[in-house]
Amino acid sequence: MNSAWRNPVLFAALVLLGGMYVLAFVFFRAESHDFIAMRQNHAALERAARRTIEAPATLKLVAGSADAMLLGNGWYEASPHGTWSSMRDSWIALGLRPADTGVAVTLNAIAFVARHHKRVVISADVDGNLLGKWLRDQGNSAEALAFCIPPQLARKGNPLLHLQVEPIASPLQANAGPDSRRLGLLLSSIDLHAGCERKSQQ
After folding, report:
1. Would residue 72 count as lying in a domain?
2. In this predicted model, what pLDDT tens digit does every residue of 55-65 receive, in sequence order?
3. pLDDT of residue 52
4. Which end of the chain has the smaller Cβ count within 10 Å, N or C?
């Protein structure tokens, strides 16, 4: 047997070194993902700032629509039916003009659920301020997600909307089809209206 493995101190040092390499790799991947997300979200905010939106308005998140450029990190390429979120966290730059009143937001979206992926929890926030949280299952997966961006956030203008879907799965994993992509929400459009109270539909 190799003498290195007979020496407990050397063996422990090798295990520690291996563990440090694993931790460094995990940290590097996490930091790389965060950097990519920040860069894509920043680019979306810059694009949104060049075309300020004033409520009422409807944003179309389908293939060929100029509004698709508002999508930040966490989305697949837009299709004729809408755009699927591709991971647990996704972002949209709304491009709203600063306003002294709240903005009512309705996400016209379908959550991916199936017989073996029965329910998901969806939340929406801006700058860490929770705006709505919903449970979606096979009975209500196509219900719109409605919430209010309050005046204190609307005054800043161009909010970056953060959506979270937990858990997400692929149709292949859920025995619901051959698509191997992990799917969260299929977002087709966003309705924006001036004036609202801070409440959400469950």
Report:
1. yes
2. 999 999 999 99
3. 84
4. N
Locate 15 and state its tokens. Answer: 């295990």
Report the amino acid identity of residue 180: S
Radius of gyration of the chain (CA): 21
Whether residue 202 lies inside any domain: the answer is no
- Assess contact for 160 and 126: CB atoms under 8 A: yes
- pTM for the structure as a whole: 0.81
H helices present in the chain, as ranges? 3-6, 8-49, 151-154
Indicate the number of domains in the chain.
Answer: 1
Higher pLDDT, 34 or 79: 79
Q: Strand 160-166 vs strand 89-93: parallel, antiparallel, or unpaired?
A: antiparallel
Whether the upstream peptide bond of residue 178 has omega within 30° of 0, thus cis, is no
Q: What band does 30 get if pLDDT is binned at 50, 70 and 90?
A: very low
Q: Domain of 160: which CATH number?
A: 2.60.120.260
Smallest Cα–Cα separation from 174: which of 133, 113, 129, 125? 113
